[in-house]
Write a structure and sequence with these properties.
Layout lengths: L10 H32 L11 H28 L3 H17 L14 H10 L2 H22 L5 H40 L9 H18 L2 E9 L2 H8 L1 H18 L5 E6 L2 E9 L2 H21 L8 E8 L6 H17 L5 E3 L2 H17 L8 E10 L5 E12 L3 E3 L1 H11 L2 H22 L5 E5 L2 H5 L8 H8 L6 E5 L1 H5 L3 H12 L3 E7 L6 H6 L4 E4 L1 H5 L6 H15 L3 E4 L5 H9 L4 E3 L9 H19 L3
Parallel strand pairs: 4-5, 7-9, 9-10, 10-11, 11-12, 12-13, 13-14
Antiparallel strand pairs: 1-3, 1-4, 2-3, 6-7, 6-14, 7-8
Helix pairs in contact: 1-2, 1-6, 2-3, 2-6, 3-4, 3-6, 4-5, 4-6, 8-9, 9-10, 12-13, 14-16
The structure holds ligand C2E and magnesium ion (2 copies).
Ligand C2E binds next to strand 7, helix 13, helix 14 and strand 11.
Length: 630
């Protein structure tokens, strides 16, 4: 919606302004003409004119001049003080100037001159339209009366009447035009202050006002008020790929679709960007909110699909309800925003209601995210190693590096909690590099003292494959610098890495592989368990997820599943590591199905490097003892 342009005026207003100007010119001409004629008459150059004495001519001339000067002066004053009063004062002034100017013998009730009384009153006290209507009505009545009496008036009195009407109308026309332009300007400024320029919808200021009002009403009527935050999914992508003009059009369409999906009494506001807020209510029950939310989502899909820009938008909605989720405007807006965040986290294209437990959790996540920044510099991380045992020999040949974070106030926090946060805020790359570097140094030491083939597995998140900022040395380069062969490290990848893989991921994996680094598919069986990945990305190991090993008993479903995974992996020439082995029975079953390696609490919990050092020595000695012939 475009705003009214205050400077632009309609043709009627243009006409008014020009007519007013012409009338002033006419008055100036009359003033000059009568002045000269009156003077010529007085000195006897010409005879009496239209029955007027030279004094009458001079008085009318002065009155006209006064009107012209008065109008111009008052317009000038108005430009400085902006009120309606100057025109009223001017009209009274005209009364005072014109009454003495009118020849007293012509001024009687019923003569044409007498019309000035109601006309002046109308001009002084009403607006232009009423003033003109009064003038027309009075003129008509007077004309009818005089026509009936057969005495319409002398040419002189008609002339004086005409001059008087012009003298009264002209200032009003000029003045009203000026005043109107200003009124529009003020109106436009007011509209802009409370509305969004692109969509014409209320802005944040008006939303705040309306929310306060709606809250008062909901309290009075004991009704439910819903505050709904609306966000267009992936709008920035549309904006970037299609250009801002299409983006603006979509925003306008979404605004219109939102407006059309709610009642006239509900408010739809735009906060800026692709964020809208809707106030619904007061409503009698919560199911009404659900219905409106469905309508909103459906109408956005439908309306943006219809447009010629070939984009179908979806929306995420966050809802907070009064009185359940907050009693003040501020709380409701904040909670609706948090619910919107939950809707986005849950995968977008849906509505989420505010949930106090989720809110506490998300606040905690935010705090942890802040804590993660700088945690590396503060030395809050350490790496522990969990042994991976060769099921044939019982020897520890590998270990998995697992990160630990000791939070300054909360103590030890599980990586299952903080790794997703670090992935989300980007700190994972730096932290992951540190884990890799620490593990590489450790495996170097173990290769020297225990086993030249010892291998440490390091987990690498999908985010780390995406973030190749070029500042950090690649892991292959780091291994070269440490003089370590590639096979000293195995990378544990989740299926997410392979699922999202693009040219860059494939390139990075190829570089790691050609440097001899092993690739291990972690948590196998929990994701897509796609066999094509194992083949396509040339994995070396498959790690059977803990959830399969947990219920592993003779003849169980898990037993069949584990057997199938082992058989399939071997057929593809991959080695198998079983995670989460906690009992001797599980170990025995896995060994019987020819699973290659086992990892789990039975064989050793994640522990400090020094502890693992001791464990490796003792198991190596035990294994050696077991294989020594008696
Ligand atoms: P994961 O890579 O699958 O690691 C195995 C998890 O299973 C570890 O949990 C380990 O302590 C646990 N586990 C091992 N054996 C047993 C067992 O017998 N019983 C039970 N109940 N659990 C066992 P943790 O250390 O809490 O790590 C959780 C996840 O965090 C890891 O799962 C991995 O995905 C991630 N993670 C840990 N460190 C790093 C890291 O440095 N970088 C990245 N990107 N992710 C990491
Ligand atoms: Mg792992
Ligand atoms: Mg795992």
């Amino acid at each position: 919606m475009t705003q009214p342009d205050a400077a632009e005026h309609t043709s009627l207003e243009g006409f008014q302004y020009r007519a007013g100007g012409l009338m002033l010119l006419f008055l100036a001409a009359v003033s000059g003409g009568l002045g000269i004629l009156g003077t010529a008459q007085r000195i006897g150059l010409i005879p009496g004119m239209l029955g007027h004495t030279p004094e009458t001519s001079h008085r009318i001339a002065s009155a006209c001049l006064a009107v012209c000067l008065g109008t111009l002066t008052l317009r000038w004053i108005h430009e400085r003080n902006r009120s309606q009063w100057p025109i009223r004062v001017l009209t009274l002034f005209l009364t005072a100037v014109i009454i003495p100017a009118v020849p007293s013998d012509n001024f009687r009730l019923g003569t044409p001159q007498s019309i000035w009384v109601p006309v002046l009153i109308a001009f002084a006290l009403t607006n232009l339209r009423w003033s003109l209507l009064t003038t027309a009505a009075v003129l008509l009545t007077t004309a009818l009366v005089h026509h009936k009496n057969g005495a319409f008036g002398t040419p002189a009195s008609l002339f004086v009447t005409a001059v008087m009407i012009v003298a009264i109308v002209a200032p009003r026309l000029v003045y009203d035009r000026t005043f109107e332009a200003e009124r529009k300007l003020a109106q436009a400024a007011k509209h802009l202050a409370f509305h969004d320029a692109l969509t014409g919808l209320p802005n944040r200021r008006l939303l705040d006002d309306r929310l306060e009002e709606a809250l008062k009403k909901s309290r009075r009527e004991a009704g439910i008020l819903a505050v709904v935050f609306v966000d267009i999914d992936h709008f920035s992508q549309v904006n970037n790929s299609r250009g801002h003009a299409v983006g603006d059009r979509l925003i306008t369409e979404v605004g219109a679709a939102l407006r059309a999906s709610v009642r006239e009494t509900d408010t739809v506001a735009r906060l800026g960007g692709d964020e809208f807020v809707i106030l619904l209510g007061p409503l009698t029950d919560r199911s009404a909110v659900d219905r409106v939310l469905e309508t909103i989502r459906a109408s956005i899909k439908r309306d943006t699909d219809r447009g010629d820009h070939g984009v179908q938008l979806t929306t995420s909605l966050g809802v907070a309800l009064f009185p359940d989720d907050g009693s003040t405007a501020e709380d409701l807006l904040r909670h609706a925003d948090q619910a919107l965040y939950q809707a986005k986290v849950a995968g977008r294209d849906q509505a989420c209601f505010f949930n106090a437990a989720q809110q506490a959790e998300s606040a905690h996540r935010i705090a942890l995210g802040q804590g993660l920044r700088g945690a590396l510099d503060r030395g809050e991380f350490h790496v522990v190693y969990q042994p991976i045992v060769d099921l044939k020999t019982g020897r520890i040949q590998k270990a998995e590096a697992l990160l630990r974070w000791t939070h300054p106030t909360e103590g030890s926090i599980s990586p299952a909690v903080f790794i997703p946060i670090a992935e989300n805020n980007g700190t994972i790359s730096e932290i992951g590099d540190w884990v890799f570097h620490t593990s590489a140094l450790q495996v170097k030491a173990w290769r020297e003292v225990h086993d030249p083939k010892f291998q440490v597995s390091v987990n690498r998140s999908p985010v780390q494959f995406r973030d190749v900022s070029g500042v950090r040395a690649s892991w292959v380069e780091q291994l070269e610098r440490l003089g370590l062969p590639g096979d000293s490290i195995a990378l544990e990848l989740t299926e997410g890495v392979l699922l999202e893989s693009n040219a860059s991921t494939s390139e990075q994996l190829a570089a790691l592989r050609s440097a001899g680094v092993s690739l291990s598919l972690d948590d196998f069986g929990t994701g897509y368990s796609s066999l094509s990945y194992l083949h396509e990305f040339e994995m070396d190991y498959v790690k059977i997820d803990r959830s399969f090993v947990q219920g592993l008993t003779e003849g169980s479903k898990q037993h069949v599943l584990c057997q199938s995974i082992v058989a399939m992996a071997h057929a593809l020439s991959l080695a198998v590591v079983a995670e989460g082995v906690e009992t001797e029975a599980q170990r025995a079953l896995l060994a019987a199905m020819k699973c290659d390696f086992a990892q789990g609490y039975l064989l050793g919990r994640p522990m400090a490097a020094a502890q693992l050092d001791v464990l490796i020595r003792s198991t190596t000695a035990a294994a050696a003892l077991a294989t020594t012939p008696a």
